[in-house]
Amino acid sequence: MSWFGKKSEPIKEWKVIEDKPLVAKALPKPSEKLDHQPTYEEIKEAEHEQIYQNVLNHFNTTEKFPVSEGNCPESQWKPLNKYEKAWLSRQCFLRYLRACNWKEQDAIKRITGSIAWRREFGIAGGEFEKITANHVKEENETGKHQIFGFDDEKRPCLMLFTGRQNTKTSDRQIQHLIYMLEKSIEFMPQGQDKLCLCVDFKKYPEACTYEPKVPPVGLGKSILYILQYHYPERLGRALFINIPTLVSIFLKLCWPFVDPYTKQKCKFDEPFKEFITSDQLPYHYGGEINYEYVHEEYWDDFVAKVNIKREKMLENFDKLGGEIGLSEWDLKEGI
């Protein structure tokens, strides 16, 4: 399984061009060079349409849902809020149904489980919104997680830099990762419901304030469970580069727990520029953009961009009737 990467010489600093204007903010939209048209998910089998309608009807007629995973007493269950109803789009139901091989009750159980998990974790909106930009801001002071650029399928790129670590392993690190994943979804343009995950394992001494360590296998399995169970079909592509020996061993240990569908989307030690157009990629990786992460410039601007996109989506949600089962493509109109 040597295809998990090969050890290479570490890059000592991030490459920028001194005589070219510097970009230090997230790009708001995909490349205009791309002619990627929105893809509308169609149900070809008649029985699948009926299954979809049954699932939709279940969530339309169920008044309350659990607020935590596990044994949550029904007395604590609560109705869906506005944010949750918008999350329960037509495409959301279809993603879960496909992940459950169109087994109606399995999909209902899994979606209900995700509603409970999202509430307990703190990302369900309204009274359940605990993981905020201010809560995780400190985690990103060195730019270890960045949403920057879009790949050649107009997927937002969530870039993870393990060599920019600035904190010890903690629950807030996982909260930070999920926060950035959620914001990647909000960055998705109309007609796109997947992201491109880009992971660079190089050490960047000038940006690393805490020596990164290979996480325990148990933590890796926990994150994999969250991504596979609560974010079905959200990953369009995963790119891993500069993989050191210890991380290669870690990946090999976690690999058996990755589902076959996800495995097909993973690329190891293939340059980012093979999948991301040059006008969306930093010069450091062979692109055209003279980019460097500057926390004071990036973070507040990034949060403002996210808030604008979210407010527009909720505005569309209200205009379209404010019910579950609306199309994400309609909710993304004008974003």
UniProtKB/TrEMBL annotation:
<dbReference type="InterPro" id="IPR036865">
    <property type="entry name" value="CRAL-TRIO_dom_sf"/>
</dbReference>
<dbReference type="InterPro" id="IPR001251">
    <property type="entry name" value="CRAL-TRIO_dom"/>
</dbReference>
<dbReference type="Pfam" id="PF00650">
    <property type="entry name" value="CRAL_TRIO"/>
</dbReference>
<dbReference type="InterPro" id="IPR052578">
    <property type="entry name" value="PI_Transfer_CRAL-TRIO"/>
</dbReference>
<dbReference type="Pfam" id="PF03765">
    <property type="entry name" value="CRAL_TRIO_N"/>
</dbReference>
<dbReference type="InterPro" id="IPR011074">
    <property type="entry name" value="CRAL/TRIO_N_dom"/>
</dbReference>
<feature type="domain" description="CRAL-TRIO">
    <location>
        <begin position="135"/>
        <end position="293"/>
    </location>
</feature>
<dbReference type="GO" id="GO:0008526">
    <property type="term" value="F:phosphatidylinositol transfer activity"/>
</dbReference>
<dbReference type="InterPro" id="IPR036273">
    <property type="entry name" value="CRAL/TRIO_N_dom_sf"/>
</dbReference>
<protein>
    <recommendedName>
        <fullName>CRAL-TRIO domain-containing protein</fullName>
    </recommendedName>
</protein>
